[in-house]
Design a protein that fits this description.
The protein is an all-alpha fold and about 100 residues long. Helix content is about 75%, strand content about 0%. Helix 1 packs antiparallel against helix 3. The termini are close together. The relative contact order is 0.15.
Length: about 100
């Protein structure tokens, strides 16, 4: 059981980094630091959006409209921290 929990924690940690990288890349594209017409940048952005949009879209629908500011990645990151802490503090110590 501890091995399964370790895999879940590693997957949550990897998804954490995917969200961070996707947010930074979207800022770089928005401020024209990287060119979206570059095929590699477009492919990376498409892949990252495919990984994050299914989770971020329901959060965006439930949140109030803040204009140009999108804080749904922050809400998702806080949710990941919450899940990790619940696993580490309550579930992991009770597994024999």
């Amino acid at each position: 059981m501890k091995a399964i929990l370790d895999v879940v924690l590693i997957a949550l940690n990897l998804y954490w980094w995917v969200i961070i990288i996707q947010a930074v890349l979207s800022w770089l594209i928005a401020f024209n630091v990287v060119n979206y017409r570059n095929q590699i940048v477009a492919q990376i952005d498409t892949t990252l959006r495919a990984l994050t949009e299914p989770v971020l879209a329901p959060i965006r629908r439930r949140m109030p409209n803040l204009g140009a500011i999108d804080i749904s990645p922050i809400v998702l990151l806080l949710g990941i921290i919450l899940i990790q802490q619940i696993i580490i503090r309550y579930i992991y110590p009770n597994v024999f």
